[in-house]
Amino acid sequence: MNRAIRFGATLLIAAAFALAGPTAQADGHGSKEEKADKPTVLITGANRGLGLEFAKQYAADGWHVIGTARKPERAEDLNALDVEVAQLDVADADSIAALAQSLEGRPIDMLINNAGIFPRAGSIDEVDFDDYMQTLVVNTVGPVRVTRALLPHLRKGDKKTIVNITSRLGSIELTTSGVFYGYRESKAALNMFTKTLAVELQPEGFTCLTVHPGWVQTDMGGANANLTPDESISGMRATIEKLGPADTGTYWSYAGEEVPW
Ligand SMILES: NC(=O)c1ccc[n+]([C@@H]2O[C@H](COP(=O)([O-])OP(=O)(O)OC[C@H]3O[C@@H](n4cnc5c(N)ncnc54)[C@H](OP(=O)(O)O)[C@@H]3O)[C@@H](O)[C@H]2O)c1
């Protein structure tokens, strides 16, 4: 393209945006309109548990929240919030691609890779290899695929923050019991992904973190867990808030303490 044609094309694009007006980007993306001055957070697995509480708290704090669910039509609690709801199955490459496509051109300030599963293999003899593979697909490959697909959006965002919800059970150093095969490996690999991505994206000013929510009263954590979702999410939000690009590639607990790898 020569310079004159390029200049003409730029003018045409600028004119199209001017005619479309400031809210054109939000059109067609659900009934809850995005405000230009609000930071945007996208949360996976936001229909229940910790993802739902993240959505609740960030929305209450004035963020534009894109909460994803495998079945948005059944996500009553999420739909009841002042958030945008989108379909996403992190184990399905087509679903991830469709989400990225539907958000085309929109900046995302923060991605929270929260969706996860926990098969309870108590000993190596109890390992079910279908469950084992699925755990790696959802807990490890899912966040990698989602992050890659949404990277163009995150690059347009101001905060450039990627938070992977891990577990203390993914810490190699803290492993003192021989149980939970599959889940531990999936979170240890997620931790390594976080670190590797942090190094790659450091020159662009990204903050990539891996955060352990504590043991929390959700379907996954069970009723005996010692933290409520409110306590865990308040702690994780405060921890994320205090960290920036200088802290990229680090592993934290909800209580704001660094966790050994
Ligand atoms: N609760 C704890 O004590 C605890 C401790 C350490 C770490 N964590 C981590 O915290 C995160 C959230 O856990 P939670 O306690 O909120 O669990 P949860 O109550 O079981 O909720 C899990 C969420 O992940 C979603 N999900 C599962 N598979 C998915 C898939 N293929 N695609 C998209 N979404 C999917 C679920 O959606 P559906 O409703 O469609 O299944 C649900 O929204 C997980 O990564 C977990 O490993 C939790």
Number of domains: 2
> Roughly what percent helix?
40-55%
Write down the overall mean pLDDT.
89
CATH class of the largest domain: Alpha Beta
Please identify which CATH superfamily of the largest domain we are dealing with. Answer: NAD(P)-binding Rossmann-like Domain
Strand sequence of the main sheet, in spatial order? 3-2-1-4-5-6-7
Beta-strand content: 5-15%
Q: What's the helix count?
A: 7
CATH architectural label of the largest domain = 3-Layer(aba) Sandwich
Question: Which stretches are poorly predicted, pLDDT < 50 over at least 5 residues?
Answer: 1-31
* Main sheet attributes: strand count, strand direction, barrel closure: 7 strands, parallel
Can you describe this structure?
The chain has 261 residues and is of the alpha/beta class. It folds into two domains: 1-25, no CATH class; 31-253, Rossmann fold (3-Layer(aba) Sandwich), CATH 3.40.50.720. The chain is 40% helix and 13% strand. The chain contains seven helices and seven strands, in the order αβαβαβαβαβαβαβ. The protein has helices at residues 3-20, 49-60, 76-79, 93-102, 129-156, 183-201, 229-242; strands at residues 40-43, 64-69, 84-87, 110-113, 161-165, 207-212, 250-253. It has a seven-stranded parallel β-sheet, with helices on both faces. The radius of gyration is 19 Å and the shape is globular. The protein starts with a helix and ends in an 8-residue tail after the last strand. Mean pLDDT is 89; it is low at 1-31. It binds NADP nicotinamide-adenine-dinucleotide phosphate (NAP). NADP nicotinamide-adenine-dinucleotide phosphate binds at residues 44-45, 47-51, 70, 88-91, 114-118, 138, 165, 167, 212-213, 215-216, 218-221, 225.
